[in-house]
Design goal:
By secondary structure, this protein is of the alpha/beta class. The strands form four sheets. A ten-stranded mixed sheet has the order 10-11-9-8-12-13-7-14-15-16, sandwiched between helices. The protein has a two-stranded antiparallel sheet with strand order 1-2. Helix 13 packs across helix 16 and helix 20 packs across helix 22. The two termini are about 60 Å apart.
Amino acid sequence: MKLENFLITPLTILFLIHSVTAYSSYYSDIPFFIKFYVLVLGLHHASMIAFLWEIKGVSKSKVWDNIFNANICGIFITFSLALLLYNLYLNSINWRHLLVICAGLDIVAHIFADITLYYLVKPIIKEKLNLFKYRYLALYAGITGSLFFLIIYNLKIKFPTVSTDLPFSILGLLFAFTVFYFVYSPIIISEAYREIGFVRKPFSLAGIGALTFVISSILVLYVTFYHIETTIRHQLFYNIAIYVLASIFSLIFYTKFIVEYPSLLERKWKALMPFDFIKIATTLALFFLAVSLYFSAEKYLELPFRLEILLPVLLGLLAIFITVIYILSYTNSIYNKSKLVYWIYLKAGLFIHVASTLYVLALIILLWKTLNNIGKYLSSFFIVLVFSFYISYAMDLRTILKNLGIRTRLTKAEITGNAVLLYAIFLIIFFFILLTYGKTSLILYDIQIESYPFLLFSIAVFLVAYISYLSVTHKGFEEMMKKNIWSELTYISGFLTFITVYLLYTSEKNVQLFLFHDFFFISYFVMLLIEIASIRTLGYHPIHKKGEKSLMYLFYHHTSAYFRVDYLEKKWKKIVDTYKHLDSKLSTIKYNPAKRSFDLSELNEKARTVVAVAMLLEMYQDRKDLGKVTPLGERDIKREIKETLKEKVLLLPADLRSKFDEDEYYPLLYEYAINTIIEKIKPFVPVEEHQEIFNKLKRVDDFFESLELRDSKINFKTEKRISRRNFIRYLKMYLRSIEERFPFEDKLLYESVKELVNRDLSNYGFSVVDLLDIVPSGINPVDRISGGLKKGTMTLLISEENKYKNEFLESFIRQGLKDGDCNIYATSKLPSQEIYNNLLMDFEIKKTTLIDLYQSIYTTSPVSSIREEPHKIIIPPTIISWKISLTKAVKKYSKEEHKRIVIDVFNDLLRYYNQDEITKVLYRQLEGLRKWNCTVIIVLYPKTFQENKYEEIKKWFDNVLILVGREKTYLNFDKLHGGLPKKRSIPLEEQW
């Protein structure tokens, strides 16, 4: 660790202590142990955030969010415990040493939490963990200093008192249950932690820290209940309640982390949290606070209002609450299906609206007996409008659900939980109003927003602008949620509710006695802003951006514009199961609700293209699919895919390619191929000459009438469809026309075409042989000079028996195997097994036939008649056997299939027959092979025939090549189709 980094924390502590010393002169009555406790806990909370920053850089799992939430609750624990210790310190003089011990134990518990998290984070980061980086200096100083001054400044804050010990009992039960569950869960899953090697130690440390924290809490409560007066204890109730509730939530978040951490490996442990305990705890906490506030506010119930009126009101509120519960259920259902942030915004706005509505209702209840007739009419009208608003809102959502095909069903647990939550919120607001009745506020008491017409005018203009904004059709998800009569009623009732409250406030002066009543107007402002912000999240752009036509843009655009995420995830699972063999990372890709898409950046290019196309087709194959926003069908999405992929659609797997009309894409491939060749040979054949070439081709075939040369590129004037076979035919016609005008050796043109084939067209299953009358020989000297052998030509190779001759022949067949040609190898010089070993080990032999004369001449097991085996024909050394076997081998393949033939048998047949017989057979077979789409190499020895006979034989061949030399072998070009090269003799290398 670097020295400067090591000094950061001590220097930060010294700076904070100096600040504390200076600040303490103003609060000298606050004991030092409380200041020290707050300072150390501030550093703890800052370090927890630093730990989470480190781990979030490596692990994106949401399990770490539980630690963050627990840390936030820990800040409330620090504040409430410091507040409680301070008040206990003032009121329990003889037991102050226990308070110091409580603070120390709480510090120790949080230190163990730091150490535990360190041991959990370090193995995952897999590098040196450094929490003394410069960027953390501001974090330590800022958070610690802010918390210290904020807590110390508010230590003398006073809360309302309660009139009985009953809330303490309820609070104790909640805390006891939470502690029991916190201890129970780790014990159950301890075996899972035992299997995770590095977690065992932090698990033990966490247990010690938890035990220390519980002991600290028990000591605090012991002093509170047994060593201070009852009156003071009642005054400190809310101090204790905040501390206990913050502890409960912190323990729940830690428990959730403990359960979810091993569930990353063993999903079964999630069964330990079958419910949303955070929601349950929040509901119970709010209900508890509502009950507690009753015991704080009951002394105010002798004012002009009576408690008896509250009971029928609570019953009447049930109707409103049921509609709100349905709204919440509908909102949750649509969010679960769509994962749109829009619904989270609406849910937040709904809670604000409910809270502001309940405030006004509570205010009406408390003022009812003092209201004049106008006030009562306005109050009644307000209640009717509020109920109408929620009914319209619920019916609006119900209509949307029906249109989207989403079913929802309220459970008893959901109804009960939400009802308790809403009643708790109402009671908290009601008793809060009682406790603050007639008091002053430094914030809003003297402002009285309803007294300012300008502000009212601004609000009215804002509402009108908002309604106008909603009336505009947006290009987004809102198109799926078409406005209906219920939407209009919701807007109208909401606006009238606002006006009614304004009139009520201006007609009743007693309203000003209620603290924060003006927050109603502010809440409406906030709701409107939330509504507008929510609608902004619905927008998307259905048309491609200019210049942006990539497949990935198309994929991300349509997946982000898909409403029903549940449909989308099912379709994605189907795609993953089908194509997971293309890339192992495909199975790890999940839908990201925040970005509303799948991140395919980690996949290889082929897998990325295939799954994007498959997903797009899957999304739009059903026109009735309620999941999509755009009204596109399968034909529309295919058109968009065509615009982005173009001819590359033909590269898709067969199952996807079959969903497209391939004949629509070969014209695109034709354009690409022709334009690539034009660009390559531009220095030799000017673009202007291509116009003449195509004019000539138009007279030969009507197909070329649809082509035009524009801006140095060939394009189809109209939509065109051509088959794969015609693609080859028309491309070959163009290449033949180019050959006639090409000013240099053909091999320059052939090289350009070969480059196009090898780089691009080979991916579509085309070979050089398909497009050119040139057959790559696989023999570098030949291919380098001539581009290859002319397709269908006969080549005579004159050579002595040596390794170069065999390598020459093997290279020719090996190239045929690569190109997918049919291959026939007839030899009397090499055993068939050696040929298999040299040639066929790395290739399929389905289109290869060996004619073996070697076994009958050079082995002790000759055959007396033709014997056929898989991919091999063994023959005796007779002319008739040779003729029959070659005919069988050639006619085994169709005339359309190109065949490569090597014949190295005539030199040995001359041992049994005279030269005239052999030359006669040779001549007739050459004539037959020319008719059967064969490119042939025949081997003869240099001295097999007389010189004049050789000259006659050479005339039968299109190419004559001679291998000469012993120590250094040369390849001589004696005759070559298309013309002899300038350098007619080339030394052969060891490797072709």
